[in-house]
């Protein structure tokens, strides 16, 4: 009796959408090792110059995004956000890479700390430092949170920063022009 013919092989499932585009997009950044290091350290200097696509999730992020780092082999690096979108990645909802650096929610604390410094600067000529409560209320945050983000951004607590800036302003007054001396006759 002849051997029975094997059953027909099941058709292979189609590849996931965008998989070919992800493979083609590999190597769009000149130095992938430097790009990976920038993402590991959340390097703000690479923000706006580098975007990272994660093939396991289909999402692309900015290097400053504080997500859990994926495996290295699942990462693709792009020089522009539009390249990542063209490769089939969608924008991260946390760091909002489609927005310009400085406008996403992840940039909020630095922006708030800079606004607080801008509001403290005009008070440097006064005798006493301003109260932080009203400044924090204007920003919509608590005084404790203002202190925390201010220290993270400027390296000093708001009042210590105010005293330091005040010393700098007093030590370096703006030069005044010398009075004109009438000519000798």
UniProtKB/TrEMBL annotation:
<dbReference type="InterPro" id="IPR035451">
    <property type="entry name" value="Ada-like_dom_sf"/>
</dbReference>
<feature type="region of interest" description="Disordered">
    <location>
        <begin position="1"/>
        <end position="20"/>
    </location>
</feature>
<keyword id="KW-0010">Activator</keyword>
<feature type="compositionally biased region" description="Pro residues">
    <location>
        <begin position="1"/>
        <end position="17"/>
    </location>
</feature>
<feature type="domain" description="HTH araC/xylS-type">
    <location>
        <begin position="114"/>
        <end position="166"/>
    </location>
</feature>
<dbReference type="InterPro" id="IPR004026">
    <property type="entry name" value="Ada_DNA_repair_Zn-bd"/>
</dbReference>
<dbReference type="Pfam" id="PF02805">
    <property type="entry name" value="Ada_Zn_binding"/>
</dbReference>
<protein>
    <submittedName>
        <fullName>Ada metal-binding domain-containing protein</fullName>
    </submittedName>
</protein>
<dbReference type="InterPro" id="IPR018060">
    <property type="entry name" value="HTH_AraC"/>
</dbReference>
């Amino acid at each position: 009796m002849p051997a029975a013919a094997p059953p027909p092989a099941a058709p292979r499932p189609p590849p996931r959408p965008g998989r070919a585009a992800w493979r083609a997009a590999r190597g769009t950044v000149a130095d992938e090792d430097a790009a990976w290091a920038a993402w590991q350290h959340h390097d703000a200097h690479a923000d706006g110059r580098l975007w990272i696509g994660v093939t396991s999730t289909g999402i692309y992020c900015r290097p400053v995004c504080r997500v859990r780092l994926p495996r290295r082999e699942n990462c693709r690096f792009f020089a522009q956000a539009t390249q990542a979108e063209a490769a089939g990645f969608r924008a991260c909802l946390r760091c909002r890479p489609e927005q310009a650096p400085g406008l996403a929610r992840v940039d909020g604390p630095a922006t708030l700390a800079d606004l607080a410094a801008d509001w403290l600067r005009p008070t440097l000529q006064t005798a006493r430092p301003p109260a932080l409560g009203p400044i924090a209320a204007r920003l919509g945050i608590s005084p404790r949170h203002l202190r925390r983000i201010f220290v993270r951004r400027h390296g000093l607590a708001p009042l210590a920063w105010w005293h330091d800036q005040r010393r700098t302003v007093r030590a370096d007054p703006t030069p005044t022009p010398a009075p004109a001396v009438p000519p000798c006759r």
